[in-house]
Inverse folding.
């Protein structure tokens, strides 16, 4: 056999069952010039037979057996290095797999770069769900690095199995896995990183790390709780430090110290939250001697509350560590308090061991959490730390404790324990709140949970505490380190029906519930349903009945109703019956005042809309709903009303449309010619029913109205929603009513729906939080089809308002707008306030995919910002009152594109509608 | 070496590429057989004196989907013949030029063979045409998956293919003399169908023809949209009389050499050969920004101009710019002809041989 290019060292111990899978993945590599060395760590199962069988089919497989079990990965891997004859070496574990092209991709990359080390991506595979997650993808962009200093974040990639090593490098520098220790990879990879002359990084997945989520996760956390594990982690860090002291640069040493604090140490501090006091104490004792000698200068770059936790570790205060870690692990729950000193926000340490200086820094430095801005979080957005106390067996009423938040609990007007589903309260129990110590309150429910009428309970949700403070309501989730299983809260549904909410632990320490049907009635109902569905054919019968009930019968009702005289009711709808906003809401509010006798119905498809008094909910999938709809004299809608519902010939239908388009729409969209007729039809069917369309501006009439093919009556210069924005902007109590900070600048970020729907924000939220947390407050309005996740830990600087109905008020309260191509631009522009266009994809969007009606760079009322750096520079200018967009340009934009809002839009729209006869 | 295609008889870009690959490898000493899955009538001869063998596995086209049993039988027969073809001699290299043919190859025992898959369209087209899932499934295990541009290779890599590389198609066509660029003709060469975007060109022409009375527009090709396009032209207030429709040609040289500008207003493309051929003729190109292939071929402002996709206004704007400057046309044309040399068969087949060396390791 000629010398192979590559030797793969596959280690195994008593894993004959999974070993064939690993071997198969190596035999199947697209690189064939390789040898496979199976190093058996003295297994007692039939590993040898399994390997012999595989070797018979693939002569590249060799078997090596250690005389006695080494108890780790290091000895077998080192033996593999000694046995290897290839120019390159890779490693694999018996329970994992190589990606098919791994060896070839890594080999070609290191050869092309003449590198000593190559590194690819590990993909974690959950063997139960089959879900794949690529690890640390961000640090694996394709590159050739001269030294590890060229990309220091690569040191977080500490596994040995996703890399290819020049064997000569391992031999020249004696790089081996340290034996008799866990985390052996960390030292090995660090030595390889430092010794390598050039490192090739490839973006491809090379290694599948198979994880059995339940057992492995459990074993990992279990292991972290063991003191032996901590000492191993500490030992390997000492070895790395010793190596770096000789061979590493100061830059690398600093990066490694920060990695230890932010990653390794973080894991143990998080564990301390969940273990009993004595385990916590021994973990602290094991960590403290090493942490005390770590270079702590990088601690400034840690998350503020992690820095606070490190301080409490240094002074040996377990409870202090837990309080700080709750903020991190329990999504920004504040279990402590802060004080202001010279404009800085300091976490209050209540420990007896508090010191003025430790680890080379003052306690003020350690406890400085200014960037976290805990004191600046508006009341409704705060995360109070409510903890569930242990529930005594057989107790139906819960109790627990709450940490005070800036002395606000004394002002609470009402408190209830609530069950919540998707942000909505489904059941409630009154409670009392008592102060038992400074900053420490206790609460207990006074009665069992009563369902809130009109809202379905659903299957699962969380428990929360609702606090009423003045006009504002705060709802913070109830949390606990561990929820005792078997606790069930009764939920009285009337008529003797009782359901149970079974409590359970959820992510981030939340206390969750699941409905247990236990009332005789519902149990009997479920039983009957099961028995019924066991009969063949009943399922299709049931779906036929459903079709009849939600489609055929309502259509029949509409068919009859639409032939009768119309009533004087008005039916309104927004966003296909899923919203309560836009022009229809503005008209509805106008009608409530101008024509209070007119009966208003609002289409609510999912039963989730909060409607004001006097506006009635309408579900058009019921017979009653279809009947009312088909007989209403007026329809007002901003999108479309189900064309299958027959319209009364005497009904007048006002279409408001949901926005002035900036993006090319309808027949102006580049791909219109490729759109199948089937997809064009629904819009066409709807459009023919519209009697009138409101048109805020000539620009709208010439672009949007024409491109959607409307050629009926236009109500010119009419924008009820625009009027609502202007009216809201005149309200003096606007910010207080919306619970927005009064002194900071308010900036709304409203991106358009991206084609990829990735849920990734173009606006770097973390960078915003660091840069503007103390100066500006960001309102994030994302599209429901592409929601952005807004982490609670940045709640001092931003708020997700995507679920809020009252967009007009939020727009009016904003001092500036950031968008890309969203039509909200036109409604905001009339306020003559700064607008920035964050559009890194501007060229691609305008020239390749969608296209715009306007050249933003020439006519927009603000700059096109290609990246977050440009955005920050612009926001800085705006915050400081400098805005380079001329007033004339803003005026021109309003007059040419948006059109003015004169306050009479609703009145004129109604007048036009009735004038149609 | 086997080169596989869906069929090897039809007049189409994929077939043309498969035949020229086969001829190129055969001339470089490989023992090449070109294999089509199904026949296609009428048969077109691509190579005058082929140095390779040709074979079509099925005797008849597949029965329609209304006859699933017949279809399944025909498929089985193709698979059996493909298997015996692979079993004939020592395993070598298979280049499978199309996705559908790949789906046959997947089902037979091809142990020992090194398999290279090609995908001739762009990533954008794969996403739009719902090919992406099929491509990811069929191509992920191959020894190599060859895309036409670096940008496509990178896009497919991001989508989950770990074996991508890129080699553009070769352009063997190179006239002795470049185009004279003195006829004032804008040429559209291709099918008249919605995805090729002739409607945008007619609209653009309507906006600019009045200012350029000495220019003519020439459509060369036919297709389902021809009546609609002709009707659009007839409705133009001006310039309609200077629009000419010619039947498709098999040899584009004459048409290209008689052009001053070649225009590609497409919504969807892969690596448009007509652009590469125009470049070889020294004709500047105005192309819509619709694929990585277009962007790789047309160096905006150097060998031609790139217009916004599906935007008649911008197309008119870019055309005007080029129509109004003879100097620019000559400059772009000369640069294009030089650039086309990088697509010469010598350059491209050298890259294929490097790829074979990697694949065989």
């Amino acid at each position: 056999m000629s010398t192979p290019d590559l030797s793969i060292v596959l280690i195994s111990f008593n894993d004959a069952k999974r070993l064939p899978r690993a071997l198969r993945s190596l035999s199947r590599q697209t690189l064939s010039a390789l040898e496979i060395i199976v190093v058996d760590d003295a297994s007692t199962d039939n590993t040898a037979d399994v390997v012999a069988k595989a070797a018979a089919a693939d002569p590249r497989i060799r078997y090596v057996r250690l005389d006695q079990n080494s108890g780790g990965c290091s000895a077998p891997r080192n033996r593999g290095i000694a046995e290897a004859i290839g120019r390159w070496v890779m490693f694999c574990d018996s329970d994992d797999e190589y990606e098919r092209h791994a060896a070839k991709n890594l080999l070609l990359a290191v050869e092309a770069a003449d590198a000593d080390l190559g590194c690819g991506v590990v993909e974690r595979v959950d063997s139960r769900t089959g879900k794949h997650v690529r690890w640390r993808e961000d640090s694996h962009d394709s590159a050739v690095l001269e030294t590890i200093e060229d990309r220091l974040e690569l040191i977080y990639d500490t596994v040995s199995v996703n890399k290819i090593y020049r064997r000569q490098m391992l031999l020249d520098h004696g790089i081996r896995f340290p034996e008799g220790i866990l985390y052996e990879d960390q030292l090995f990879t660090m030595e390889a990183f430092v010794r390598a002359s050039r490192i090739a990084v490839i973006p491809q997945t090379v290694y599948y790390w198979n994880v059995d989520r339940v057992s492995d996760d459990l074993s990992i956390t279990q292991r972290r709780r063991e003191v032996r594990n901590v000492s191993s982690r500490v030992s390997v860090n000492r070895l790395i430090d010793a190596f770096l002291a000789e061979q590493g640069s100061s830059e690398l040493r600093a990066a490694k110290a920060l990695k230890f604090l932010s990653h390794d140490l973080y894991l143990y501090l998080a564990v301390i939250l969940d273990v009993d006091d004595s385990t916590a104490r021994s973990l602290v004792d094991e960590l403290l001697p090493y942490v005390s000698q770590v270079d702590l200068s990088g601690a400034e770059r840690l998350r503020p509350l992690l820095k606070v936790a490190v301080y409490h570790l240094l002074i040996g205060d377990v409870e202090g560590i837990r309080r700080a870690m709750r903020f991190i692990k329990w999504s920004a729950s504040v279990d402590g308090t802060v004080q202001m000193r010279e404009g800085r926000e300091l976490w209050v340490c209540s420990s007896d061991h508090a010191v003025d200086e430790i680890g080379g820094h003052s306690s003020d430095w350690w406890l400085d959490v200014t960037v976290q801005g805990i004191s600046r979080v508006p009341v409704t957005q705060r995360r109070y730390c409510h903890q569930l106390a242990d529930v005594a067996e057989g107790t139906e009423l819960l109790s627990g404790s709450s940490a005070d938040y800036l002395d606000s609990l004394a002002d609470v007007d009402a408190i209830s324990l609530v069950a919540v589903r998707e942000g909505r309260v489904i059941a409630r129990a009154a409670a009392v709140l008592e102060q038992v110590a400074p900053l420490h309150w206790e609460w207990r429910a006074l009665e069992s949970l009563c369902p809130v009428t009109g809202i379905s309970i659903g299957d699962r949700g969380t428990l929360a505490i609702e606090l009423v403070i003045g006009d504002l309501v705060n709802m913070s989730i109830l949390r606990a380190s561990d929820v005792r299983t078997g606790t069930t809260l009764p939920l009285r549904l009337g008529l003797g029906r009782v359901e149970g909410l079974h409590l359970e632990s959820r992510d981030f320490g939340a206390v969750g519930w699941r409905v247990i049907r236990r009332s005789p009635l519902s149990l009997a109902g479920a039983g009957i349903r099961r028995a019924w569905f066991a009969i063949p054919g009943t399922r299709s019968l049931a779906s036929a009945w459903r079709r009849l009930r939600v489609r055929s019968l309502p259509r029949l009702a509409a068919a009859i109703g639409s032939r009768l005289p119309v009533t004087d009711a008005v039916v309104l709808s927004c966003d296909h019956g899923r919203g309560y906003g836009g022009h229809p809401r503005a008209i509805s509010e106008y009608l409530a005042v101008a024509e209070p006798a007119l009966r208003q119905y609002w289409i609510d498809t999912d039963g989730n809309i909060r409607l004001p008094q006097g506006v009635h909910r309408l579900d058009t999938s019921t017979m009653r709903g279809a009947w009312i709809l088909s007989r209403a004299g007026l329809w007002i809608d901003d999108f479309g009303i189900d064309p299958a519902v027959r319209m009364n010939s005497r009904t007048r239908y006002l279409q408001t449309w949901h926005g002035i388009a900036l993006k090319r729409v309808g027949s102006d969209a580049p791909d219109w010619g490729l759109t199948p007729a089937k997809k064009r039809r629904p819009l066409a069917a709807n459009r023919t029913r519209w009697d009138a369309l409101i048109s805020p501006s000539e620009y709208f009439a010439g672009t949007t109205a024409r491109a959607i093919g409307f050629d009926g009556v236009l109500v010119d210069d009419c924008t009820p929603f625009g009027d609502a924005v202007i009216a809201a902007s005149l309200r003096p109590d606007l910010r207080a009513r919306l619970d927005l900070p009064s002194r900071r600048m308010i900036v709304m970020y409203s991106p358009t729906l991206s084609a990829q729907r990735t849920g990734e924000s173009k606006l770097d939220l973390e960078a915003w939080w660091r840069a503007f947390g103390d100066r500006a407050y960001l309102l994030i309005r994302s599209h429901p089809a592409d929601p952005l996740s807004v982490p609670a830990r940045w709640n001092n600087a931003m708020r997700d308002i995507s679920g809020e109905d009252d967009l007009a008020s939020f727009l009016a309260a904003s001092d500036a707008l950031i968008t890309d191509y969203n039509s909200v631009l036109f409604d905001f522009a009339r306020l003559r306030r700064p607008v920035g266009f964050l559009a890194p994809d501007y060229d691609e969007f305008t020239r390749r995919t969608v296209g715009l009606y306007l050249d933003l760079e020439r006519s927009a009322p603000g700059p096109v910002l290609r990246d977050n750096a440009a955005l920050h520079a612009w926001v800085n200018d705006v915050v400081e009152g400098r805005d380079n967009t001329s007033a004339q340009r803003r005026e021109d934009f309003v007059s040419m594109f948006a059109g003015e809002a004169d306050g009479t839009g609703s009145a004129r729209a109604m007048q036009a509608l009735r004038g149609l006869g | 070496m086997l080169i596989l295609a869906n069929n090897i008889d039809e007049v189409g870009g994929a077939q043309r590429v498969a035949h020229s690959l086969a001829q190129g490898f055969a001339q470089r000493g490989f023992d090449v057989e070109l294999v089509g899955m199904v026949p296609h009538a009428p048969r077109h001869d691509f190579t005058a004196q082929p140095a390779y063998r040709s074979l079509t596995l099925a005797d008849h086209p597949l029965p329609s989907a209304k006859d699933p049993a017949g279809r399944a039988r025909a498929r089985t027969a193709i698979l059996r013949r493909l298997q015996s073809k692979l079993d004939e001699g020592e395993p070598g290299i298979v280049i499978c030029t199309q996705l559908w043919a790949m789906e046959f190859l997947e089902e037979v025992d091809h142990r020992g063979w090194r398999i290279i898959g090609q995908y001739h369209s762009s990533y954008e087209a794969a996403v739009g045409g719902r090919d992406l899932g099929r491509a990811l499934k069929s191509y992920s295990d191959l020894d190599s998956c060859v895309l036409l541009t670096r940008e496509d290779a990178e896009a497919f890599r991001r989508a989950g293919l770990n074996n991508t590389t890129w080699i553009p198609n070769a352009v063997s066509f190179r006239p002795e003399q470049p185009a004279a660029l003195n006829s004032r003709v804008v040429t559209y060469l291709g099918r008249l169908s919605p995805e090729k975007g002739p409607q945008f060109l007619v609209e653009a022409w309507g906006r600019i023809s009045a200012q350029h009375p000495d220019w003519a527009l020439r459509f060369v090709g036919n297709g389902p949209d021809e009546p609609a396009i002709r009707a659009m032209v007839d409705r133009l207030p001006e310039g309609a009389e200077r629009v000419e429709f010619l039947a498709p040609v098999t040899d584009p040289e004459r048409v290209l050499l008689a052009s001053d500008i070649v225009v590609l207003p497409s919504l969807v493309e892969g690596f448009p050969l007509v652009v590469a051929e125009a470049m070889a003729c020294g004709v500047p190109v105005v192309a819509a920004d619709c694929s990585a292939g277009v962007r790789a071929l047309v160096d905006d402002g150097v060998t031609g101009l790139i217009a916004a996709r599906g935007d008649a206004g911008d197309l008119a704007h870019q055309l005007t710019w080029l129509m109004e400057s003879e100097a620019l046309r000559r400059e772009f044309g000369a640069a294009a002809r030089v650039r086309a040399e990088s697509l010469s068969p010598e350059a491209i087949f050298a890259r294929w041989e490097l790829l074979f060396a990697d694949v065989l390791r």
